[in-house]
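Issue: ligand-bound run for magnesium ion - logging full I/O for the record.

Environment: standard queue, default settings, no custom constraints.

Inputs:
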Amino acid sequence: MPVLVFDLDDTLYPELSYVHSGFRAVADFLSPLLEVPAETLAAGMIADEAVQGRGQVFDNVLRQHGKWSKALVAACLRTYRQHRPTLSLYPDAERCLTRFADWPLYIVTDGHKEVQARKVAALHLASRVRHAYLTNRYGRHRAKPDPHVFQLICRREGVTPEEVTYVGDNVRKDFVGIKPLGFKTVRILRGNYAHYEADAAHEADRSIHSLDELV
Ligand SMILES: [Mg+2]
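Outputs:
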């Protein structure tokens, strides 16, 4: 039986929605301290991120209100990372998981393991896949492009790599490590890497614009 494996961020749900959810949690935390309504703070952070990226958002909001300190920036970061996000699957991801509900489905995702686990929980994915592999649980060196957890999936399902398809968005790391082993790869063209041009080693076997194209 073929096995279908999905990346998480920007493949099954828009990662920016996690970022915005985190900003709203930080806004709730900062609101009493800065004496500014949380909605105002959240809107400011969301606008700032859109222009400058997320690197300095907490520094900027604290500076803007004359309350910058290293400790407060750290507290914002903690609040962001520990918040329980509100997230929704992309509509085509929702349909895809339903369409392939009888297949062995998996998730493979990099990133902070507790953060990724909270995303999986928020999206109610635990009941829809056999397992969500958070590569971080196996050590940082097991992050993509390392093929380790993909090999664990083969062992668990008793299949060869040729029977496993991985769907991801990040051409920089999602496919280059597993392609030489025979895994099938599909690139979903969305998120930050949608327009990124990759060489043959990094490119997937095929590209799609929507998970509805997976049949
Ligand atoms: Mg991704």
